[in-house]
TrEMBL record:
Database matches in InterPro entries: LpxK, P-loop_NTPase
Family statement drawn from the similarity comment of this UniProt entry: Belongs to the LpxK family.
Keyword Lipid metabolism: yes
Membrane-spanning residues: none
Example of a GO biological process term: lipid A biosynthetic process
This protein's name: Tetraacyldisaccharide 4'-kinase
Keywords in alphabetical order: ATP-binding, Kinase, Lipid A biosynthesis, Lipid biosynthesis, Lipid metabolism, Nucleotide-binding, Transferase
Keyword Membrane: no
EC number: 2.7.1.130
Reactions the enzyme catalyzes: a lipid A disaccharide + ATP = a lipid IVA + ADP + H(+)
Length: 338
């Protein structure tokens, strides 16, 4: 692990140094502001609801917004690929990837995916009348010039064990990455104590950037058709959770806040596409533990087959809520420096 982490460090550090020194230059998409919502660790920081929060905030300000994503694990035949024009969805979750499909469902703005983010943003600018593009992930994708880099820091695992992949979960050198950010949002603050949040805030303040605080509270509890059910239904019940998330423990912590009697989990890999054998295993596990309810996430819901049937299955939807919002202020440090 140590050797692999060191090799990863060398590769990412050399690439970043070449961009920092201007030897490699990012490509610019003129006439549009690009705001990247990213992170410094692998998965699970809350980018999907964060992107949707910024989309709504910018739309409320009168901006014309589109979303661009890599479309991780999406099986599409062309690139860039139009997921939605803001009115109609043209792709399945399997083609677009699960996060872009969720954006198309919830954000109601153009959504485009592409491994080459410059080409994807250029496609958006050419075909849609927008003045702002939100880049979902891509902080480490330095081939594209951005106007802002908003970095989400997961309060439950803020700095990836301070070790790079594969030893830890850092995507790049911690100090260099944080120095390059425009601003920070501490996410999932409701899943840790106030003292831990303050500790993270204090550490980030040394970089002289704005720091905001967000929580990921429960938005609603729904059946598979989207009909809302009372949250108190979960209290005192035996529940089985299933999900394909980077950090399923945070999903469990959120359900614990609803005070069930007993919880078990069936975990799948992040971005997992479910098969019939998975549902057989879930059903068997639910029967073994005598579960009252089976609960999954909105992200996993979009990957379930249309004819999916599993009795007493519900979806827990999460809302990204700002407790302290210092985002999208004029670029510069707290002392006015860049």
């Amino acid at each position: 692990m140590e050797i692999l982490a060191y090799i990863y460090y060398l590769v990412t550090s050399i690439k970043n140094r070449l961009y920092d020194k201007g030897i490699l230059k990012p490509k610019e998409v003129p006439g549009v502001e690009i705001i990247c919502v990213g992170n410094i660790t692998v998965g699970g920081t809350g980018k999907t609801p964060g992107v949707q929060y910024f989309t709504k905030k910018l739309l409320d300000q009168g901006r014309k917004v589109a979303i661009v994503s890599r479309g991780y694990k999406g099986k599409r035949k062309r690139d860039p690929f139009l997921v939605s024009d803001g009115r109609e969805i043209f792709a399945s979750p399997k083609e677009s990837g699960d996060e872009p499909f969720l954006h198309a469902l919830n954000a109601k703005v153009p959504v485009v995916v592409g491994a080459n983010r410059f080409k994807a943003c250029s496609f958006v600018k050419k075909h849609f009348d927008v003045d702002t593009i939100i880049l979902d992930d891509g902080f480490q994708h330095r081939k594209l010039k951005r106007d802002r880099d908003v970095i989400l820091v997961d309060a439950t695992n803020p700095f990836g064990g301070r070790a790079l992949l594969p030893k830890g979960t850092l995507r790049e050198d911690l100090k260099k990455g944080l120095e390059r950010a425009t601003e920070f949002i501490i996410t999932k603050s409701d899943l840790v104590g106030e003292r831990e949040v303050e500790k993270i805030r204090k550490y980030l303040r040394r970089y002289k950037k704005e720091v905001s605080i967000a929580k990921h509270g429960v938005s609603s509890f729904c059946d598979l058709k989207g009909n809302m059910k009372p949250l108190f239904w979960v209290k005192g019940k035996r529940v089985l959770l299933f999900s394909g998330l980077a950090n399923p423990l945070n999903f469990e912590k959120t359900v614990i806040s609803l005070d069930p009697e007993y919880i078990e989990r069936v975990d799948f890999l992040d971005h997992h596409h479910f098969k019939e054998k998975d549902f057989k295993n879930i059903r068997k596990r639910a029967e073994m533990m005598d579960a009252d309810y089976i609960i999954t996430t909105e992200k996993d819901l979009v990957k379930l087959p249309r004819n999916f049937k599993l009795e007493n299955t519900y979806v827990l939807k999460i809302k990204f809520t700002m407790l302290e919002d210092n985002t999208l202020k004029p670029v510069g440090g707290l002392d006015g420096s860049n």
